[in-house]
Specification:
- The chain has 736 residues and is mainly α.
- It has helices at 3-15, 35-38, 42-64, 71-80, 85-112, 117-135, 140-159, 167-191, 196-223, 227-254, 260-288, 293-313, 319-353, 359-393, 411-435, 440-453, 460-463, 467-485, 492-510, 516-530, 540-563, 569-589, 596-613, 620-647, 653-667, 675-693, 697-719, 721-724.
- Helix 6 packs antiparallel against helix 7.
- The radius of gyration is 30 Å and the shape is elongated.
C-alpha cells in the first residue's frame, strides 16, 4: 500500500465533512467546476507559480548545459513538487537515492545481456517486480525509492539498447537531469518557505489539537449513548494512521534534533487506545444498565470535562497552561473515580459480612466498582495523550523518548504488486520486439514507468484512474504547442514563455482535490511530448511517432492493473476480514505475541483500509465491516487483558480453566458458531459468584478484571457471529 497516497486520500475525506470556501473569491465553493482555475487560493496560486518557475529554470539550465534530453529536468521538478516542504524534501531525497541505484543496476543489466532481449526483458521484469514487491512493505517515500530503482533501471536499459557502448554516459545523463530538477525545485521552494521550523510546529499542533478535540467529542457521544459518537470514533480511528504518516514530513521540516514527532505519534496512539477503551466501556455500560447512581455522577463529571476541552484548547490564552489545567481536572476526576471505587469496595466487603444482604446488591456494588475502575483507566489514557502533547509544544533538550512504530507487512499484496509490474514490462518488451517499431523503446519505457509507479499502491486501479486522462490532456496541449506555437519560436526565451501558461494551469490543477492524478500525469509528460532542444524543435512527423508511443505505453500500463490480478474491493475486504479473524485466533492461542499498542496500530491500519476501499460513498456493507473490525479490535484487547490476568497465576485451577476455555474457543473458532460467546457467558456466570465471595482481596481484583473483560467479550462475540465466520462471504441481514 502506498501510504502517502492513502494519507492524502483520508485527509481529504476528513476535510470533506466541512464545506470550505476559497479565499480567492468569497462564495465560490472549492468543489465548484473549474474553481481551482477561476478563483485559486493564494496558497495554490503560489505553489503553481513557484513550481512553474522552478521547472522552467531547470529546463533553461539543461538547455544551457547542452544536455541531450533537457525535458527530463523539467519533468523531475514537477514530480518532486509536493504540498509541503517536508514532503518535497523527502521525495527529492529518496528519488535521488533510487535514481542512483537504478542507474547502477541499468548499467549492470545491459552489460550482462547486451544482445539478448529474450533474456534481458524477463530478468528486467523480475528485478522490477521484486523492487515493487519490497516497496509494498515500506512507508511514505521510502517505497517510492524502490519504485525509482525499478523504472530508472528500465529506462536506462531501454535508452541504451540501441547504443550499448554509450550506456555509462546515458546513466550519468539521467542522474544529472534528476539532480538538476531536484536542486531547482528545492532552491525555489526554500526561498518561498520562510520560518519552516515554526510552520511545522504550528502544523503539528493544529493536527494534534484537532485529533484531541475530535476524540473528546467522540467519547462524549459514546459515554452518553449518542449514536454519532460511534461513527465519529470509527472515522477518527481510521484517520489516525494517515495523521501519523504526515508527522514524518513535519519532522523533516523541523530538523533531526528533537523528538517532537515521536511524542506526536504517541499522542495519536494514546487517542486510539482512548477510543478503544471508550468503545469497550460503552458496551459494558449497555450490558450493566441500569447504571449505579454513583457511577452516573462520575460519568457526568468526566463528560463535562470532555465537552470543555475543545474550547479550552482553542482559547487564545497560553496553550501549555490550558493543557496543564485540563490535566489537573482529569487528575481530580480520576481521583474521584478511584475513591468511589474504594468506597464501593468497602461497602462490598461490609455487605458480604452481613447475611441479610441480597446477592443483587452485591452484584450492583461489584459492577459499580468495575465501571469506576474502567473510567479511571480511560481518564488516564487521555491524560497520557495530553502529557505527550505538552512535550510536543515544550520540548526538553534532554528528551530521549522514542516511539516504536508497528508496520504490518502484507506478502499477498506485495506478490500481486510485483507480478503486475513484471507482467507489464514483459508485455512492453514483447510489443517492441515483435513489431520492431522504431519508437517501441519509448512505448516499453512508459509501460514500465506507469506500471511500477502505481504498483506499490493497494488499489492501483483507483490510483491510476486519472493518469491516462492526464496523458491525453498533455498530448492535446503539446499538439497545440508543437503545431501552432513553437514552430515560430526561434529562441529558448520564447520557448520558455510559451510553456509558462500551460505549466501554470497544470500546477493549479495539481492542487485541486478532484484532479490530482490527471494533473500529475499532465505535468510529468507534457515536457517530454514537446521535446525542447537547443538546435531543433519537434516537428509533426516526430510528434506523431513519439506522442502515440507515450500515450499507448501509459494506456498499457494502466490497463495492466485492470487485467493482471485486478483489484476487487469486495475480494480485498473479504481477505482483510480473514486476516482479522486469523490474527484474533492466533492471539487467543498465543501463536503470535502482540502488545496492546501493536494490536491497536494494526487494528487502526485495517480500519483505515476498509474506509479507503469504500471510496467516496461508504455504504451499509462498509459500516458493517467497520463494526466487525472494531469488534475484533475490542475482543483482541480483552484477550490480552485476560492473558495478563492468567500470567499472574493468582487464580484457582477451576477459574484458570474457565478463562482458558474461553480463549481456546476463540482460538479454534470455525464457521458460523455462537460457541465462543456461549463459552464467555458460561465463564462469566461461573466467575461472577466467585468474585462476590472471594475473601482474598488480591485474587478478588484479578477476578474483577476477568469479569469486566468477559462482560464486554460476551457481547462482542455474540454481535459479530456472522463477521467471524470466514468460511463464507459476509452479507448483511435481509432486514437491512
Amino acid at each position: 500500500m502506498h501510504v502517502s497516497s492513502l494519507s492524502d486520500h483520508l485527509a481529504q475525506r476528513m476535510r470533506a465533512w466541512g464545506n470550505r470556501v476559497l479565499s480567492g473569491r468569497p462564495g465560490l465553493s472549492e468543489n465548484a467546476p473549474l474553481a481551482w482555475l477561476i478563483a485559486p487560493s493564494p496558497a495554490n496560486l503560489g505553489f503553481a507559480l513557484r513550481t512553474t518557475c522552478a521547472a522552467l529554470l531547470a529546463l533553461s539550465l539543461a538547455l544551457w548545459m547542452e544536455l541531450d534530453s533537457p525535458q527530463w529536468a523539467a519533468m523531475t521538478t514537477w514530480i518532486v513538487a509536493q504540498n509541503s516542504r517536508g514532503q518535497s524534501i523527502s521525495k527529492a531525497k529518496w528519488r535521488l537515492i533510487g535514481t542512483c541505484i537504478g542507474a547502477i543496476c541499468g548499467i549492470a543489466f545491459l552489460a550482462a545481456f547486451p544482445q539478448e532481449p529474450w533474456l534481458l526483458f524477463p530478468l528486467l521484469a523480475l528485478g522490477a517486480g521484486a523492487c515493487c514487491a519490497e516497496a509494498t512493505f515500506l512507508r511514505n517515500f521510502r517505497s517510492y525509492a524502490l519504485v525509482l530503482v525499478a523504472f530508472t533501471c528500465t529506462i536506462i536499459v531501454l535508452s541504451g539498447a540501441s547504443q550499448p557502448d554509450n550506456i555509462f554516459m546515458i546513466a550519468i545523463s539521467r542522474a544529472t537531469y534528476i539532480t538538476l530538477g531536484i536542486v531547482c525545485e528545492s532552491t525555489l521552494a526554500g526561498l518561498f518557505a520562510p520560518r519552516l521550523n515554526t510552520v511545522a510546529h504550528d502544523e503539528i499542533r493544529t493536527r494534534l489539537m484537532e485529533a484531541l478535540s475530535g476524540a473528546c467529542l467522540s467519547m462524549t457521544g459514546l459515554l452518553l449513548g449518542q449514536k454519532d459518537g460511534l461513527f465519529r470514533s470509527r472515522a477518527l480511528m481510521g484517520s489516525i494512521p494517515s495523521l501519523a504518516d504526515q508527522i514524518e514530513f513535519s519532522e523533516i521540516e523541523m530538523g533531526p534534533h528533537e523528538h517532537i514527532g515521536d511524542h506526536a505519534r504517541a499522542v495519536l496512539a494514546s487517542i486510539s487506545t482512548f477510543l478503544a477503551r471508550g468503545l469497550s466501556m460503552h458496551i459494558h455500560m449497555d450490558a450493566a444498565a441500569p447504571l449505579p447512581e454513583t457511577f452516573k455522577q462520575s460519568l457526568s463529571d468526566f463528560a463535562h470535562i470532555l465537552t470543555t476541552i475543545p474550547d479550552r484548547l482553542n482559547a487564545p490564552s497560553d496553550l501549555i497552561e490550558a493543557v496543564r489545567q485540563i490535566r489537573a481536572d482529569l487528575y481530580h476526576s480520576r481521583t474521584n473515580c478511584l475513591q468511589t471505587a474504594t468506597d464501593t469496595l468497602i461497602l462490598f466487603e461490609e455487605a458480604r459480612t452481613q447475611p441479610n444482604n441480597s446477592e443483587h446488591l452485591m452484584r450492583d456494588l461489584l459492577e459499580s466498582r468495575i465501571l469506576e475502575t474502567a473510567l479511571a483507566k480511560l481518564i488516564l489514557e487521555l491524560d497520557e495523550a495530553l502529557q505527550h502533547f505538552i512535550a510536543t509544544q515544550a520540548p526538553s533538550p534532554k528528551d530521549h523518548f522514542r516511539f516504536a512504530q508497528h508496520i504490518e507487512k502484507d506478502p499477498v499484496l506485495a506478490l500481486n504488486n510485483g507480478l503486475r509490474a513484471a507482467a507489464a514490462i514483459c508485455v512492453g518488451g514483447l510489443i517492441w520486439e515483435v513489431t520492431a517499431w522504431p519508437d517501441g523503446a519509448t512505448l516499453a519505457m512508459f509501460v514500465a514507468v506507469t506500471s511500477t509507479r502505481f504498483s506499490s499502491f493497494e488499489n492501483p486501479v483507483q490510483a491510476s484512474s486519472g493518469f491516462l486522462r492526464g496523458a491525453v490532456w498533455a498530448a492535446l496541449v503539446s499538439w497545440v504547442l508543437v503545431f501552432l506555437v513553437l514552430p515560430e519560436q526561434a529562441s529558448d526565451e520564447t520557448l520558455l514563455a510559451s510553456l509558462f501558461f500551460p505549466m501554470l494551469v497544470g500546477g493549479l490543477a495539481l492542487r485541486a482535490p478532484n484532479s490530482i492524478g490527471t494533473a500529475a500525469a499532465y505535468n510529468n509528460f507534457m515536457p517530454f511530448m514537446i521535446g525542447p532542444a537547443n538546435h531543433s524543435r519537434m516537428n509533426e512527423i516526430l510528434w506523431f511517432n513519439t506522442t502515440p508511443a507515450v500515450v499507448l505505453g501509459i494506456a498499457l500500463g494502466v490497463w495492466t492493473f485492470r487485467l493482471v490480478l485486478p483489484f476487487d474491493p469486495a475480494a480485498e475486504r473479504w481477505r482483510l476480514r480473514r486476516k482479522l479473524v486469523r490474527d484474533l485466533r492466533r492471539l487467543a492461542a498465543k501463536e503470535s505475541s502482540f502488545t496492546p499498542a501493536e494490536w491497536m496500530a494494526r487494528s487502526c491500519g485495517r480500519i483505515a483500509q476498509i474506509i479507503h476501499h469504500a471510496g467516496e460513498k461508504p455504504d451499509a456493507l462498509t459500516e458493517a465491516y467497520l463494526a466487525g473490525a472494531m469488534g475484533i479490535m475490542t475482543v483482541g484487547l480483552l484477550i490480552l487483558r485476560i492473558q495478563h490476568v492468567l500470567e499472574h497465576h493468582a487464580l484457582s485451577p477451576q477459574h484458570t480453566q474457565a478463562l482458558q476455555t474461553v480463549l481456546h474457543s476463540i482460538a479454534t473458532l470455525h464457521g458460523h458458531t455462537t460457541q465462543p460467546a456461549e463459552t464467555a457467558a458460561t465463564a462469566l456466570a461461573f466467575l461472577r459468584p466467585a468474585t462476590l465471595w472471594e475473601p482474598n482481596l488480591s485474587i478478588q481484583m484479578e477476578l474483577t478484571r476477568a469479569v469486566g473483560s468477559l462482560e464486554v467479550m460476551k457481547r462482542e462475540l455474540a454481535d459479530n457471529v456472522t463477521f467471524l465466520d470466514i468460511t463464507r462471504r459476509f452479507h448483511l441481514p435481509r432486514a437491512a
